[in-house]
Amino acid sequence: MTSVVIKPSFWLTEGIRVERVNNLNLFKFTEELGLRMQELLDKKKADLLTPEETAELEAIDELDTIFSYINAINASQS
Asked: To pair with 21 at 20 to 30 A between CA atoms, which of 5, 31, 38, 52?
């Protein structure tokens, strides 16, 4: 069986936006990527994810963790 790997950097050009909030530039998902994440989470709850979708969800989750960390650092330095 071949392992499927999707890197978070896959979404650099289409899945990421920077939003100005209270003098902070925060990294966020585009609406499309947010909707895709929700779709994958719903499929996961229903136990319907394919191996490719599992890899995709894991990559999106990793990106979410990275954004949370960067946004927290930005907030603490302002």
From this structure: 38
